[in-house]
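protien #1 (seq + structre)
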Amino acid sequence: MPPVDKEIRGSRPAMRLLLLLLGSLALGQPHAETSPLPYESEYQAARKTYRAHRYQDSARMLEALLKAHPDCARCAHLLGKSYGRLAQRANWLSAMDLARKTCSAFELAVRLDPKDEGALEDLIRYYRAAPEFLGGGADKARVMEQAMGQARSSRQLEEPRAGRANVPHEFRLRERSARASAL
């Protein structure tokens, strides 16, 4: 083995560690800071059930998950979507009860994670479509839209390079439709 400077030899393990970390980031493998939540597998199972159009089953799964983990905003959002799908298929009496549950779940999701634009958009859509006696209303929708607009503009002011201005419009549309088809 040729003579190697001690400084270089000492940096090899550090370099290997750095390359390993960068490799795991490039492959999308989670590292210590973004380890999956303890209920991630249950959430994914409920999501898969929702995508299979088994809304009653997904609602039951998500209700149990929210009972065990009341801070899960994604669970509340998907529960609201499940209730909404069930309301679309129900008789009018059941649909009214499910519509109220949909509204409550969306509001909970937004309370738990006010930055979740998907939950905000679904809540705004609900407010626009539902009559006031079911928790909807155009005034509520306008208030939420203003709050969402302010949050977006403040985020753009804080992080101008992190905004979506440099992403081509057609890519944003493809990305949005891919997200929608995933749910």
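ok now protien #2
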Amino acid sequence: SPSTFCSTLLHKYPSSYIYNEHMKIDSSALMNAMRERHSVKKYNATPLTPQDKAFVGNTIAHINATSGLNMQLIENEPEVFRTFISARTGLISAHSYIAMVGTAHKDLDFFVGYWGELLVLLLQSRGIHTNWTGGTRRLGLSTARVQQNEKNTILIALGYGENSGKERSTRPIEALCSAPSPYSPWLRRALHAAQLAPTGYNRQKFHFTIDENGNFETNPLLWKANITAKSTTHMPLNLIDLGIATRHFELGASNYFSSVYGWEPTISRSEDPRSFSFTYPVVE
């Protein structure tokens, strides 16, 4: 149900919970995946190895159970990418993809980006290349199982690329946030991670507003950072982009605290998933 998405994000959880406790991948590995990953358009015909297929399936199953999404791996379906748009963009050699399906809900696109990007980074760490790809025609050709109350929002092409993609330009971190200067070191790490977020046409039309209270160095128990993520465009799929950028922002902040202080902040969310806060991880 729609509430499944909110209930997953409402409770407090360590930001690395899903991939440290269950997938044995830490924030440093995911930061490396961010730096190494680029959108790949040309794939060779080699199918996923049995080991990689099992990894993809198990990872999807775990994230689905955690998020309430219904992501699905679809293999050997190259017709989806043989469209006019695919020919224009060069994405015509992909033959497998992940259908990003979920219960129709006002925040579905955000959650698709937020959880889908975690999957993308985990696949990158495994050496599996990806490409976020939209288009009504492609979605119409997909054979993903979509229930009456669900929506197939976007596809993620995956496979072994003929290359690792091209590095893309980024906006300066000062254009991505509103916060007092000078920026806290954790915020700089978070914004540099957000810079690496893939977005439609590389627009990076997202903005973070930060209200930080207290000092995490002198009294971490009283420290709190309130963050609001906002899309600055009304273009299609803008909330998917925002979800992707938010995932990167959180991972960057978590990586800073874990690498410098040995702890990761607890992330708490309000009913609106775009408003969240970081606090010192207190055991309840």
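The longest helix spans residues 238-260.
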